[in-house]
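Section 5.1 Outputs to date
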Amino acid sequence: MKEFFRRDNFWLGMGIAIILPVLTWLLIKGLTEIFAGSNGNMFQQSTEQLLAICSNLIPFRYYLVKLKADKTGKGIMLVTFLFAMLYFYFNWAA
């Protein structure tokens, strides 16, 4: 399994970049439910989304700097860019 994540593959990067923000968002939502309780939200919804998108920076740097896996890094960058564009589209105050 360890070798699977060390591959330099564009599709692997896209998969990581899609799954990691979803897991991060679920973790933030779960922690908010535990600690905020019935008092309300700890974060605004847009802040939760932005934190989830920013979680892609960690594997992005790991694959580009440590593993020198350019194709995987490009896959992560593409999906992160698309998520950021969607974030601004849905959260832009008119």
